Amino acid sequence: LEADGFTFDVVDGAVYVKRTSLEGTIVIPSTLSGYPVKGIKEDTTVSGAQFVDSDEPVSIVLPEGLESIGEGTFSNCYTVESVSLPSTLKSVGSLAFYNCSLRSIEFPESVREFGSSVVSNNRELTKAVLPSHLTEIPKGIFSGCESLTDFEFPSGVTTVNDYAFQSCGFTELTIPSSVTSVGAHSFSSMERLERIVVPGSI
Predict the structure, then answer these.
(1) How far apart are CA 150 and CA 54, in angstroms?
(2) Eight-state DSSP code of residue 62
(3) How far does CA 37 lie from the centroid of its chain?
């Protein structure tokens, strides 16, 4: 289905947006064709299709009421520089924002489920905020984010999963004392790192 510059599916009375022909600041509406927009998903029906196909910088504003961002949805949308996530978002799939050009990202407290490598390879990303309730840093979430320097661990985090911060841009890093498990290559290839504080709990 198509309406208002968006291509989407309707499943069980809810809209799942697959791509758009719009450019610039793209505000996804809360309803399309009279149905509530509940998710964003990768368009697997068209080979090589991307959510947005633009040579100019793009900002994405997702609507309140949206609950899911599917696997690979914005993958390789290299012109996407910012995204505004709603307070209703519950899940973000693997590689959802892989290889975009995000400068910062803040995940709302409502997110309970993360896939792997969600924001990986965003080389311009300098700041990231995860929900405070997380007890695990998702696998590969910031891998390849070589400009990332502004990040605070959630206070109750106990596990840093594989490749979580591989090749990030930190010069100093303090792993909180709550952390008891660190996965493979979690902090590898951090070429700018000058100082790291590792707690005795690991």
Answers:
(1) 29
(2) P
(3) 19
